[in-house]
């Protein structure tokens, strides 16, 4: 299967960064964006100022308003927009092609993972999931980054990983799409919680406890949904959970910090907060946990803060006063 040309759908931070990584790997890359001025800027000045500032983009990367045929499609729009973005593409572009899903979130309403959305919208496409600790600015700047690329066929997944690998971008092939998708979606929920703990000045010990108990909760969710808890020891699990829950660079962590300082969701959004995928994913994860009868008090707590504007001190007091249990 040829893997030379790549079309990246979504001209935001992550789409541009992945397009840059693919171009640095030697692929011929088309970045499909919705804004004509942005497309012109990328093609003329080789920058995408709105999303990546002064970062110079690789000459092997060009932008376009319309997707054309490519060997590999990378979908890099927010999780809640994936269905619409796929629906806007000519189905012939997706049929039989590797489609790499890079959004980290679960769909509101359907509770679907990104792979499930793809299966609905393009059943003939070959699904892959890319996730792991990777800030767009780091990837675009060529700073060392390692990610997980999960697909069903081991040989094809390794070939695709090799096609995207460059000196600073190292995809590890894996096969647990469900585990990788759930980990990527849930780490954003825990990053909101960790940001809130830090915004409320509850201390580094509280944040570490949250990380560890979040990891245990994530393992229960992954297992209940048919993935493997072992996946969580890797980049898409522990790697991304650690990065996102401890870095002010994370938009989810920043959003959580604002919550911890006492701002409401509406105030944070009105102040121009960037995309924080955990906000849309928390209620979906809470609904999934309840329907699967998974004990997920941290997801429920984040959902309660977001949906009822309950203050962090009250939420933490509730978590701390639950009956003591074994650390299983
Ligand atoms: N930014 C990162 O560091 C990073 C890293 C890894 C994964 N991700 C994931 O990538 C996904 C996208 O995030 P981002 O950081 O690029 O967000 P972003 O806000 O920087 O950009 C989103 C882009 O999607 C476009 N878009 C929105 N709806 C669309 C639609 N229906 N059709 C076509 N384009 C549409 C917007 O115009 C925008 O260009 C998220 O799920 C995020 O979790 C981001
Ligand atoms: O800025 P965030 O919180 O969306 O995190 C970006 C990436 O998912 C980190 O791996």
From TrEMBL:
Catalytic activities: sn-glycerol 3-phosphate + NAD(+) = dihydroxyacetone phosphate + NADH + H(+); sn-glycerol 3-phosphate + NADP(+) = dihydroxyacetone phosphate + NADPH + H(+)
Please give the pathway this protein is involved in: Membrane lipid metabolism; glycerophospholipid metabolism
UniProt-listed InterPro entries = 6-PGluconate_DH-like_C_sf (IPR008927), 6PGD_dom2 (IPR013328), G3P_DH_NAD-dep (IPR006168), G3P_DH_NAD-dep_C (IPR006109), G3P_DH_NAD-dep_N (IPR011128), NAD(P)-bd_dom_sf (IPR036291)
Q: Where in the cell is it found?
A: Cytoplasm
Q: Which annotated residues bind NADPH?
A: 13-14, 34, 51, 104, 136, 251, 275, 277
Residues reported in the UniProt entry to bind sn-glycerol 3-phosphate: 104, 132, 134, 187, 240, 250-252
Q: Does the keyword Secreted apply?
A: no
The record, for Gene3D superfamilies, names:
N-(1-d-carboxylethyl)-l-norvaline Dehydrogenase, domain 2, NAD(P)-binding Rossmann-like Domain
Task: Indicate which residues the UniProt annotation says bind substrate.
Answer: 104, 251-252
Q: What single Pfam family name could you report for this chain, choosing any that match?
A: NAD_Gly3P_dh_N
Q: What class of enzyme is it?
A: oxidoreductase
Q: Name one GO biological process term.
A: carbohydrate metabolic process
Chain sites annotated for binding NAD(+): 10-15, 136, 251, 274
- Is Lipid biosynthesis tagged as a keyword? yes
| Sequence ranges assigned to domain Glycerol-3-phosphate dehydrogenase NAD-dependent C-terminal in this UniProt record | 176-316
Q: Name one GO cellular component term.
A: cytosol
Enzyme nomenclature, EC number: 1.1.1.94
> What job does the chain carry out?
Catalyzes the reduction of the glycolytic intermediate dihydroxyacetone phosphate (DHAP) to sn-glycerol 3-phosphate (G3P), the key precursor for phospholipid synthesis.
Family (UniProt): Belongs to the NAD-dependent glycerol-3-phosphate dehydrogenase family.
Protein's UniProt name: Glycerol-3-phosphate dehydrogenase [NAD(P)+]
């Amino acid at each position: 299967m040829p893997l030379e040309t790549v079309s990246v759908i979504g001209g935001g931070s992550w789409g541009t960064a992945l397009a840059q990584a693919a171009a640095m790997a030697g692929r011929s890359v088309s970045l499909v964006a919705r804004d004509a001025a942005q497309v012109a800027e990328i093609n003329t000045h080789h920058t995408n100022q709105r999303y990546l500032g002064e970062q110079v983009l690789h000459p092997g990367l060009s932008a376009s308003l319309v997707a054309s045929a490519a060997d590999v499609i990378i979908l890099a729009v927010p999780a809640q927009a994936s269905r619409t973005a796929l629906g806007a593409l000519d189905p012939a572009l997706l049929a039989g092609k590797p489609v790499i899903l890079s959004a980290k979130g679960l769909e509101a309403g359907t509770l679907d993972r990104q792979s499930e959305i793809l299966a609905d919208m393009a059943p003939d496409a070959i699904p892959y999931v890319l996730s792991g600790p990777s800030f767009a600015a780091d990837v675009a700047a060529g700073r060392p980054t390692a990610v997980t690329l999960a697909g069903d066929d081991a040989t094809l997944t390794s070939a695709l990983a090799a096609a995207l690998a460059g000196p600073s971008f190292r995809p590890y092939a894996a096969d647990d799409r469900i585990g990788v998708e759930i980990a990527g979606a849930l780490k954003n929920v825990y990053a909101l919680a960790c940001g809130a703990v830090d915004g409320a000045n509850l201390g580094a010990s509280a944040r570490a406890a949250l990380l560890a108990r979040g990891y245990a909760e994530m393992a229960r969710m992954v297992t209940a949904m048919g993935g493997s808890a072992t996946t969580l020891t890797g980049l898409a699990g522990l790697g991304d959970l650690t990065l996102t829950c401890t870095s002010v660079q994370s938009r989810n962590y920043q959003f959580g910090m604002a919550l911890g300082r006492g701002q409401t969701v509406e105030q944070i959004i009105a102040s121009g907060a960037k995309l924080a995928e955990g906000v849309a994913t928390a209620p979906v994860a809470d609904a999934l946990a309840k329907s699967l009868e998974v004990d997920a008090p941290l997801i429920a707590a984040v959902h309660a803060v977001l949906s009822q504007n309950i203050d962090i001190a009250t939420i933490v007091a509730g978590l701390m006063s639950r009956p003591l249990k074994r650390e299983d």
